[in-house]
Amino acid sequence: MMTDIAIIGKGPAGWSCAITARMRGLSVLVLAPQHDASWLARTERIDNYPGLPEISGRALLDAFQAQALAMGAEKRGGLVRQVLPTDGGFMLLVESDVVEAKTVVLAMGAARPALLPGEEELVGAGVSYCATCDGMLYRGKRLAVLSASAEGAEESLFLEKLASRMDYYPLKPHETGALPSSVQVIREKPEALERTAEGLCVRTKEKTRAYDGVFIFRSAVSLSMLMGDLATEGSFIPVDRGMRTNVPGVFAAGDCTGRPLQVAKAVGEGNVAAISAAEYLAARG
Ligand SMILES: Cc1cc2nc3c(=O)[nH]c(=O)nc-3n(C[C@H](O)[C@H](O)[C@H](O)COP(=O)(O)OP(=O)(O)OC[C@H]3O[C@@H](n4cnc5c(N)ncnc54)[C@H](O)[C@@H]3O)c2cc1C
Asked: pLDDT digit string (tens) for 209-239?
């Protein structure tokens, strides 16, 4: 079923957008990884959110979510990897699934991954972000997994069964104890990916190692990979006063639109994005 609004991100901007969209009678799907990456979840105490002095970030976030879900918003776990325009709206690739929506609100916060040199050019040519989608292509092959979190270690369990050999590079410190002993954990910082006669190489300061495939797991996606047609200014998304991006039917709210990076601003922009999305849908009939 095609939802009226797919909201990418479950921080204050995303939940505020969901609440107002439900008030306008729209169907709402909020998409974000299970593991909470909202900056608000990491904030011990907020003193400048009106009406709720000294509230913890976690408590405020839980209250936003409870209100949105009680009003009928739905949520689904998973990182959105790509948004593609279709005839009637948009198709969103969520991990290895597809979600369809008439409009999209980008509420992904300010965290953006820095891509490795060579990474973007090698996507689809050996570099993959989805074990379920592409794992089978590498049966009996040499694999490297580059992962920013323990979720990558879990994905690796499936890949390890297929691969002839697997190396695991933690991009940030995290628990890797779940990995079988056949997987070599390499604690060297990957500096670049490159194609050579030996294969697809991961270069670190210490050494360059060749593989047939490289899987990369992070908790965010670069804007260029998420949506090729989206205009950007540095790592932010320019919007007009209605939170409209340059792509008709796509709106943005919160930290991803730029400074100041504040909860009250994110909540306000989420509200405006929902109203603009409702107007857009009404105009289309
Ligand atoms: C330590 C700290 C202290 C702070 N103190 C204050 C304060 O006192 N007052 C104040 O007003 N603000 C404060 N802030 C800032 C505030 O937390 C942010 O401005 C606010 O959380 C922004 O909300 P957001 O919804 O735009 O983004 P976020 O809250 O960052 O939420 C982003 C969401 O998008 C999801 N996401 C990202 N990429 C994808 C993707 N590709 N697919 C699916 N989901 C995705 C994330 O998982 C997350 O759920 C503080 C921040 C920090 C880190």
From this structure: 999 999 999 888 889 889 989 999 988 999 9
Cβ 106 under 6 angstroms from ligand 1: no
Confidence (pLDDT) at 9: 97
Q: How far apart are CA 173 and CA 153, in angstroms?
A: 12
Q: Quick one: CA torsion of 106, 111, 117, 119, rounded to 10 degrees?
A: -50
- Tell which one of 263, 265, 267, 272 to mutate to probe ligand 1, the residue whose CB is within 8 A of the most ligand atoms: 263
Whether this model's pTM surpasses 0.85? yes
Closest atom, ligand 1, to C-alpha of 35: 47
Scan for tokens 């270690």, then name that residue. Answer: 153
pLDDT at 36 over 80: no
List the CATH code of the domain at 119-217. Answer: 3.50.50.60
- Please choose from 39, 47, 84, 255 the residue to mutate so as to test ligand 1's pocket, defined by most ligand atoms within 8 A of CB: 39
The reply to whether 3-112+221-284 and 119-217 are identical in fold is yes
Pick the CATH number of 3-112+221-284 from 1.25.40.890, 3.50.50.60, 3.40.47.10, 3.90.1010.10: 3.50.50.60
Rounded Cα distance between 11 and 30, Å, is 10
**Domain segments of the chain as ranges:** 3-112+221-284, 119-217
Closest among 16, 41, 11 to 28, alpha carbons compared: 16
Ligand 1 centroid to Cα of residue 255, in Å, is 7
